[in-house]
Amino acid sequence: MNCRTIKSQKNLFSVAIVLLCFSFTNAGFFSVPLPSLNGRHTGSFDGPGSTAHADFQTEFLSIDEVSIHLIGTYTPGTGHYYTGQPGSVYGELWVFTPGWTVLPRILHPSEFDLSLRFDPLTNPEEDWSMLMDGDVDITLRLLMGTVCDIIDEVPEIDLTFAELLVEGTAIPEPATLALLGLGGFWLRKRRP
Questions:
Q1: Over residues 109-113, mean pLDDT
Q2: Torsions phi, psi of 56, nearest 5?
Q3: Which of 7, 101, 111, 122 is spaced 20 to 30 Å from 93 by Cα?
Q4: Nearest C-alpha neighbor of 39 from the set 155, 144, 160
Q5: What integer pLDDT is reported at residue 125 of this predicted model?
Q6: What is the mean pLDDT of residues 103-127?
């Protein structure tokens, strides 16, 4: 085996290491804020809710898990029976997009900091096909339930922070792939 063959193999090995390292650094957790969900949401029986668009600015090769992180304050509603007795009105938090949903959650009066996992509805296996292009719409609504006849005040949540989180592997952007190619070319040209 001559010197030139050994150098070529070293160069190819260096390029392979660079690509391998990049593939590992491109797998992990990705997050995108949802500022349009921030603010006050009032309880309703069948309201449409608020929808936020999430754009990760990358496509995904694979997705293992999707969740939403919400921080805010919840205030229950109040009501009374026709007899005059006081009653309670509660809010049930729903977060969903067509194809997946978070299990509905009845909130308790307090500040909350929740990380809620999405579950696919159409496929028992994890099906994140809607998000593979890095774009998705998320809807949040506060459904209302009551154990009284008359509602005096509806329940409310006041969100101060919302973000969508993905655990998966992103596809490198074309510009990044071009830089990697140039890096490999530079490694080959560096040694005579």
A1: 94
A2: -80, -10
A3: 122
A4: 160
A5: 63
A6: 87
